[in-house]
Amino acid sequence: MTYQTVGRSKPRVDAPAKVTGKALYPGDITYPDMLHMATLFAGRPHARVLAIDTAAAAAAPGVVAVFTAKDVPVNEYGMQRPDRPVLCGPGSAKAGGDVARFVGDQVALVVAETEAQARAALKLIKVEWEDLPLVLDPEAAMQPGAYQLHPDCPDNVTCSYHIRSGDVEAALTEADVVVEGVYLTPVQEHVYLQPEAGVAYIDAAGRVTVEVAGQWVHEDRKEIAHALDIPVDQVRVIYPAIGGAFGGREDMSVQITLALVAWRLAQRGIRRPVKTIWSRAESIIGHGKRHAMKLWARWGARQDGTLVAAEVKVIADGGAYCYTSNKVLGNTTLTCTGPYYIPNVSVDTYAVYTNHVPGAAFRGFGGPQGHFEAEGQMDKLAEALGIDPVELRLKNVLTDATPLPTGQPIPGGVGLTQTIIAAAQAAGWTQDADGHWHKPADGKWQMANDDTQYPIPNTQCPIKRGLGFACGFKNVGFSFGYQENSHARIELRGGTEIEEATLYIAGADVGQGHHTAMAQIAAETLGAPFERVKVVASDTATMQNAGSASASRLTYMGGNAVRGAAAQALVAWRNEDRPAVGDFKYLAPKTTTIDHETGQGRPNFAYGYVAQAVRVAVDIETGQVRIEQFISADDVGQAVNPQQVVGQIEGGVVQAVGYALLEDFRTDQGKVLTDKLSTYLIPTVLDIPEQLASIIVDVPDPNGPYGARGMGEMPYLPVAPAVAAAVYDAVGVRFDDFPLTAERVWRGLREAAGSAAGPVSE
Amino acid sequence: MNHTIHFTVNGERYNISVPSHHTLLQVLREQLVLTGAKNGCEAGECGACSVLITWPGAKRGEPVNSCLVLAPEADGAEIITIEGLMHDGQLDPLQDAFLAAGATQCGFCTPGVLVNARALLNRNPDPSETEIRETLVGNLCRCTGYIRIIEAIKMAARAGREVAR
Questions:
Q1: ipTM of the complex
Q2: Do A9 and B102 touch (CB under 8 A)?
Q3: Chain A contact for B108, CB < 8 A?
Q4: Would B88 be classed as within a structural domain?
Q5: CA B157 – CA B153 distance, rounded (Å)
Q6: Inter-chain CB proximity B86 and A20 less than 8 Å
Q7: B73/B99 same-domain check
Q8: Structural domains of chain A ordered from first start
Q9: Which residues of A, range 187-226, sit inside 8 Å of B by Cβ?
Q10: Are B78 and B38 members of one domain?
Q11: Mean pLDDT of chain A
Q12: CA-based, 20 to 30 A from A538: which of A388, A479, A732, A749?
């Protein structure tokens, strides 16, 4: 469908300030007479604070105040479950609030005239610790007799889901082919470029105000108010420019501690702004990570390729606190059987408390882990059956007519078949007259543009090339019974024509381009030029809840809110109201939780779809894997801003290439070994695919604004399994774990070849 | 201990006292309140703090991680930060290209990338894609996947050659 503004690559409204250095991020904000806060982290993965002596720190030069657990009115927080103390230590009413459960737990806050003074005083705080047994293996932590990490959770299982559909045992017995696998997926660190920072103060209206980078101003406000035990309208949260998020800012970092400090100081008559900036190391130990998971799978199919059964068990390392483990695990539960119709399904998933850095939201919310197993199983089935991997997928893929394992049909407008065909054809797959799909012949692939061809170190080495394919789907929004909603307000000013439309929306622009997309939807609905829409965003004092910038939900929910507000404002405009105001809360179609025993229900109302093909070159002497070509076809329903959609695809793919090949988060006895950007490596420009093609597929979502569906996470989902399939195609060795670092691949190749290949240093 | 240093930043001359152990990045951000250069790691690993520095006696500016330069070392130098990339109120062709190509998302890496790209085009107005990629190896970006950034630099180089013609 063609629109005036939607579907056009309008310039980003936030970009001029960003390319000139004028955009202010939380760490760039300075106020007169500002104080500085530094945080004492536990540094121990599991220990009880027996006593804290802050006298020397309080007396140190420049120090204004030191705060500990006893200063927190309600010493707990957590987006899904308030299981984490704001500050660990004695003196609060929180049961278990004196225990640090991971190295990044926080113990004390020092406020001083300068940052250097605050940090220096941290070293003067004396903490008396009692080390407690470490719980590091989630499988062991679930067993009877394991050390209990939280008072109200006897088996350490944070949450679990189960799906029972059909008769899996019988179907597996009757299946012609059964493939099995045990898959391990790694932790991933977000590495948003902007470390956690913020400024807190009491505003002119007397509200405790925090300027910070997060993903949901209203949730931040709620959590601050809860910990301070004050009404939400006495708290204000404002987001300036946000330096990336990817899920890692979904949970609290400096929000509550900054608010606490400004509020406590004001009670002592000190009304001065307080600023804090975490170092990169503090950021890496201090915020949650993508959950490491172990997935056991047994899938069966008939000789003709029809999937008949899937049995999957998942154990996720939830780390020290719940964070959004229930949301993450819910998505793993739905995605671990892939985007396929399978009549007999048994799924059991568990997230388990340990003393690791908490598992948290990260682009894809458990979907990448589920897909690594599901798509790995499909690749193995394709081989076992002798069926082309694209054909096997097309034969089983979800359509408008097929139910999910949760019993209900998938919501309409399923674009999976279209994305699979688009990606396959772009990679050279062909379909013969009988309808069979054929992988392009080996060796046909050539780099199209020599200028982009990168020399592989030591060109004498034998390079093996391979082609892999994978696809995926994920829900849009939190759902699972949560009533998805979003609010927007529009004011129109002018005489006979709309001269200015002011859009108030609280949604966070974390870099994805949310504010531009919302301005486009407003302009489209109003029939006004894009340039006349002014966006005012992310301040709880002047706007209502738009919901979180996560779960690929904000264009969908916020877009429907903006569309509703704009339509209302137009009615008022025609009634000659000036300003003409539209104020609209979008309520998405209802969902349900899934039944705890059977998993039956309607957990979601919208999904996004993706299919990808990847060509790799593997140096079998060094184990180095390079991605020569990557094709991602994404069903986005309707691209609101095609350039930004492509930006999301490219950014998502490269982030997932890091996950698949490079990013190796290491801990030892709960301590983080990779707390620097020189030890935790993310892709540089030299690590990206030499070619990356984005294909936009547009099967409209029936409920999305102008047909748009969520898309920010989808390009991430199948990358790791597609790369693993390509590596297998290249070297004939299956890797059911990753990252596929040179070392892991090299070892895998040596193991496969046996000890004849030479000594393997251990 | 403090040092008094004389240097030029974005065409303005400064004569200021700086603590010996402070980095150029700290002085730019805290004393001069030029917050365009970002602190992403304070260890020379991310490139977000890149600025152009022309050392005393040198002919051309080179990009440095300002978190790795001690402020007293900048005595006598000429420095260009992201705030100094515009000329006479006009955006640098690179800034225009970043807007047109959609090369900025969260934008935190953008100042460092732009400064580094400016240095590249100053020494080579017609870089190959390989040279562009090699130039950017010290600038981490977590949002864009680098592709739009590479496109934008190519676009700016083309625009620069058009002007030169």
A1: 0.98
A2: yes
A3: yes
A4: no
A5: 6
A6: yes
A7: no
A8: 31-132 (3.90.1170.50), 293-477+597-753 (3.30.365.10), 479-587 (3.30.365.10)
A9: 190-195
A10: yes
A11: 95
A12: A479
